[in-house]
């Protein structure tokens, strides 16, 4: 039966949605949109397949959380795909722990297991699960599929996944899970188009957005990544600290008298670009702010990203290609220049004009490492899972 798949990505203050034709295998949706400001003043935008803005939006006055936004959105979407049934709803779910190495059909026991993982992704998992419950309430007969940001990394070796902690803790599941897997999965699927025979070579993908991480790929599989047990580790981010000496946390507890919840807020929401600049977690805003602290935050973001990349290179034995993606990676020529400026020794050299124009290939002809800008498409990976699981 032909119909549509809906993909949902419920973030801490936003809901991204896209509708896909079940009969087409295209990565392009029939429409996609965002509700920003969930929990405050929600604002709706949507665009059709041709990229044109859809004017007739959803009335969201008084919709105070994801559940209410979804309750208003579903009838609007039904009108958009009139005549074609909704065959499945696919969700981005940040944490799938060790038990979910693949996209999974959501049942009550699965939902309970995902709920148990919520403390490991406090910024995201609750919102992901709230969206699943809201859809179940309104459309109980429509299958729902969870697609995990952690799954893509389950190809990594034990060596890459474990911490230098007592084995009993490793056995309890305190390991490096890695995140942004839907984005890496999508980029990996595009590599043959961009790198031809080099697609199965040694590639690092830099997913640089409000949340940022990098992934080392070989044969288009995840070999190592910068995020670890939670989405707090690794690169400096919009408001998250990235890699931090654990001794700092002990100091804050023992000498500053901070509680666990206060430290959680500090590390997730008051650090990163926001903490260093003192003004904003937003790279675009910082690039347009002429202060020493804004410049310091950008420089630190780029330096730490280059160090993160260098830490991945041993896992794949060198570097053939570097791919920038996500909001900052796709749009900030300045950040790409600054990161690549630290990577000369690895054979990375940019073509400044191509970089300024955000061409797909931005490396100089003489560069040993090919450098690309490839827009990510996590929704397409979720839609693909719906196609595979709902027949
Ligand atoms: P994401 O989380 O992938 O949506 O990325 C959000 C980040 O991308 C924010 O820090 C934005 O400021 C940044 N971003 C988006 N467009 C630009 C741009 N043109 N220049 C610099 N940063 C940008």
How would you characterize the overall build of this protein?
This protein is of the alpha/beta class and 391 residues long. It folds into two domains: 145 residues, ATPase, nucleotide binding domain (Nucleotidyltransferase, domain 5); 179 residues, Nucleotidyltransferase, domain 5. It contains 15 helices and twelve strands. A seven-stranded mixed sheet has the order 4-3-2-1-5-7-6, sandwiched between helices. It has a five-stranded mixed sheet with strand order 10-9-8-11-12, with helices on both faces. Helix 1 crosses helix 3. The radius of gyration is 21 Å and the shape is globular. The protein starts with a strand and ends with a helix. Bound molecules: adenosine monophosphate. Adenosine monophosphate (AMP) binds next to helix 10 and helix 12.
Gist of the model:
This protein is an alpha/beta fold and 391 residues long. The protein has 15 helices and 12 strands. A hairpin with a 2-residue loop joins strand 9 and strand 10.
Question: How are the SSEs ordered, and which strands pair?
Answer:
Layout: E1 4-10, E2 14-21, E3 31-36, E4 43-48, H1 66-80, E5 86-93, E6 104-105, H2 108-116, H3 125-138, E7 144-148, H4 158-161, H5 167-171, H6 181-195, E8 202-208, E9 212-218, E10 221-225, H7 246-254, H8 260-269, H9 272-277, H10 283-287, H11 292-316, E11 321-325, H12 326-331, H13 333-341, H14 352-356, E12 370-373, H15 378-389
Parallel strand pairs: 1-5, 5-7, 8-11, 11-12
Antiparallel strand pairs: 1-2, 2-3, 3-4, 6-7, 8-9, 9-10
Helix pairs in contact: 1-3, 6-15, 11-13
Adenosine monophosphate binds next to helix 10 and helix 12.
């Amino acid at each position: 039966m032909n119909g549509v798949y809906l993909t949902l990505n419920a973030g801490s203050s936003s809901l991204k949605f896209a509708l896909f034709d079940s009969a087409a295998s295209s990565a392009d949706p029939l429409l996609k949109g965002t509700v920003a400001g969930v929990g405050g003043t929600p604002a709706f935008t949507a665009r059709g397949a041709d990229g044109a803005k859809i004017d007739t939006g959803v009335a969201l006055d008084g919709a105070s959380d994801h559940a209410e936004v979804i309750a208003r959105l579903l009838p609007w979407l039904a009108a958009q795909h009139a005549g074609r049934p909704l065959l499945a709803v696919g969700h981005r779910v940040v944490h799938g722990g060790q038990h979910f190495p693949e996209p999974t059909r959501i049942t009550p026991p699965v939902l309970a297991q995902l709920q148990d993982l919520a403390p490991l992704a406090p910024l995201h998992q609750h919102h992901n699960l709230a969206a699943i419950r809201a859809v179940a309430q309104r459309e109980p007969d429509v299958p729902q599929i969870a697609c995990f940001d952690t799954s893509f990394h389950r190809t990594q070796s034990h060596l890459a996944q474990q911490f230098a902690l007592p084995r009993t803790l490793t056995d309890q599941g305190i390991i490096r899970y890695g995140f942004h897997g839907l984005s890496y999965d999508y980029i990996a699927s595009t590599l043959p188009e961009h790198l031809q025979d080099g697609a199965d070579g040694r590639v690092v993908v830099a997913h640089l957005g409000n949340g940022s991480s990098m992934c080392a790929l070989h044969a288009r599989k995840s070999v190592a990544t910068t995020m670890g047990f939670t989405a707090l580790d690794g690169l400096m981010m919009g408001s998250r600290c990235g890699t931090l000496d654990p001794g700092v946390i002990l100091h804050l507890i023992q000498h500053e008298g901070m509680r666990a919840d206060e430290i959680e807020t500090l590390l997730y929401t008051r650090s990163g670009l926001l903490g260093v600049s003192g003004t904003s977690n937003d790279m675009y805003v910082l690039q347009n702010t002429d202060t020493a602290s804004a410049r310091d935050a950008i420089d630190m973001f780029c330096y730490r990203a280059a160090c993160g990349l260098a830490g991945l290179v041993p896992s794949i034995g060198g570097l053939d290609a570097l791919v920038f993606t996500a909001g900052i990676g796709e749009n900030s020529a300045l950040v790409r220049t600054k990161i690549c400026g630290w990577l000369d020794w690895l054979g990375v050299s940019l073509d400044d004009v191509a970089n300024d124009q955000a061409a797909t290939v931005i490396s100089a002809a003489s560069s040993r490492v090919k450098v690309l800008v490839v827009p990510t498409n996590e929704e397409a990976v979720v839609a693909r899972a719906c196609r595979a699981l709902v027949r």
